[in-house]
Amino acid sequence: MTDERFGKLVYLIHLLNIDGIGPLKIFSLLSKFHNPKDIFHTNISRLVEVEGINKNLSNRILNSAHNILQSKAKLEKTLSALSKINGRIITYWDEDYPELLRRIYYPPILLYAIGEFSESDKNSIAIVGTRMPTNYGKQNAEMFAQDLALNNITVVSGMARGIDSTAHRATLKSNGRTIAVIGSGLDVIYPPENKKLFEEICENGAVISEYELGAKPDAQNFPKRNRIISGLCLGSLIVETKLNGGAMQTAAYAIDQNREVFAIPGNIDSKQSEGPNALIQRGEAKLVTKAEDILIELNLRIKPEIGKNIPRPSFDLTLFEQNLLNTLSNQPMHIDEIATTSSMSVSDCLVNLLTLEFKGLVKQLPGKMFVKC
């Protein structure tokens, strides 16, 4: 590690340990002070010019400057410990930082990682669910993970008991790549019985965490962890979970991140199926019964027989529908732009776009944006 990189890491880690400073405020600070070291060698009047940084927080930042040497010593100790477990620190600005994760609203500044990322990880799907699945849930998690792995899709999960562990193991069994996002330090394996699974994932993918070494698997860590699981992926598959389960948080994050959500329907009398069924009922998740449904929806044409060569049903289109299809492309367009370009009223556009969506020819995105499928 170069002295320059080490110095930047010291100041980034120091910032993250200041109460009230998180990734968004660090991005704001670095938009004004390009070197994190400069943040601690300025004055309050310049700091308060940064969005989200008030006078109290400015004082806290400047008053912490005398503890920089402690942060430096702590980083040296961390790097030494990471080297013993073949781990490393990845920053948001590094080339190997996952590109999909970089695009979310609240990306982690630092990732602690064991294992390697791959170019193929750009095609990743999360499989998450309850820690207490039924046999139905376990069988489906295993089936989906295996089929996705066989189609070169990286499976991401949280290495928790139940559905998460089942998905990781099924992926490894199929010689696929899998990534685990944990809610503790890399040196704190939780649950402890997953030690062997942890090691296998490191060899066939990666285990990552935004928590520093020694961090315990406290309950408040897991909701934040879930945003990384969804953020790494094109979509998240919810297998089984109660309405208040952690997998529902992952689904909510995926929706906020403009990623797809898929759900496996379950028995209406089963508590474990409350979450997936609710997501489907509310129109927040697409009902899927096989991995092929996900591949086609995401247009992941990994194998010739998947997606591309499956014939689409033919439809008789009205002149209005054909006009809209001619207007749209694979780049999202706002409804106002569509109306102007097609010479149709907004209300007529919305009615006909809805019909085209039912026919699977158009997809609506957040913010009244539409794209041709």
Report on this model:
With 373 residues, the chain is an alpha/beta fold. It folds into three domains: 3-84, Orthogonal Bundle (DNA polymerase, domain 1); 115-297, 3-Layer(aba) Sandwich (Rossmann fold); 319-372, Orthogonal Bundle (Arc Repressor Mutant, subunit A), CATH 1.10.10. Helices cover 43% and strands 13% of the residues. It contains 16 helices and twelve strands. It has a nine-stranded mixed beta sheet, with helices on both faces. The protein has a three-stranded antiparallel beta sheet with strand order 10-12-11. The protein is globular and about 70 Å long. The protein starts with a helix and ends with a strand. 38% of the residues are buried.
Give a summary of the structure in a few sentences.
By secondary structure, the chain is an alpha/beta fold.
Q: Quick one: how many beta strands?
A: 12
Shape: globular
Overall domain count: 3
Enumerate the strands of the largest sheet in spatial order, edge to edge or round the barrel. 1-2-6-5-4-3-7-8-9
> What share of residues is helical?
40-55%
Rounded radius of gyration (Å):
23 Å
Unreliable spans:
302-313
Task: Characterize the main sheet.
Answer: 9 strands, mixed
Q: Determine the mean pLDDT.
A: 91
Classify the fold: give the CATH topology of the largest domain.
Answer: Rossmann fold
- Helix/strand/pairing category: alpha/beta
CATH architecture of the largest domain: 3-Layer(aba) Sandwich
Count of DSSP helices? 16
**CATH first level of the largest domain: which class?**
Alpha Beta
- The SSE string, one letter per element, is HHHHHEHEEHEHEHEHEHEHEHHEHHEE
Distance between the termini: 46 Å
Query: Approximately how much beta-strand content do the residues carry?
Result: 5-15%
